[in-house]
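Observation: inputs received (chain + calcium ion).
Thought: call the complex predictor directly.
Action: predict_structure
Action Input:
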Amino acid sequence: MADPKKILIVEDEEKIAEAIEAYLKNSGYETSRASNGRDAITIFEKKMPDLVILDLMLPEISGEEVCRHIRRTSRTPVIMLTAKVAENDRVQGLDIGADDYITKPFSPRELVARVAAILRRSSEKDPLFSKMSWNDSDLEIDIIASTVRKSGISVSLTPSEYRILLALIKHPGRTFTREELIGISLGDDYDGYDRIVDSHIKNLRSKIETDSANPQYILTVRGIGYKFGA
Ligand code: CA
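Observation:
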């Protein structure tokens, strides 16, 4: 057996921290906890965790600052916990180097699933993957070249379709709302409606799914949005 992965939980709300810790321990992770930003940085440097779960709103030193500090010295994956729901805050969390974020209230089960997915990704040889493929190369993406191939044949995506696909692929299993996908495909200042996303998704499916009526890659999450399901 490999050594258990070490997770640092940075959260000042004790009940939340305890719940997260219990779930992670149950899943076989080794955990440590910090309840403020200062301790977080100290423990991070001492323990060198494999992943950090980082609350955004912390006493003393904010989650953003802790994240920036971590990023100055390492590529350790960071999952941000945020109570802020505004999309700008989420995007900012990702901009300062978080790998993922989860909005409170959340289910610890979902958080543990994200932890597992991110650790899987970061244990791949090149954490900044450039090529990915699914189902025996049925679907292939080259992120450096920005090309997509379906059954070996290159498909031509619009920039919006490509941005949506890339966002979904980078967070497998995570559901994106239509609002998030609008922001991703068209930029934050676009004041559009959900239909535009549905139409991008429809076009994407016609290009990368074998049967767009029974999609296997881009799945609908009823009432919410879409996720990558391969
Ligand atoms: Ca907090």
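Thought: report the result.
Final Answer: The chain has a mean pLDDT of 83. The longest strand covers residues 6-10.
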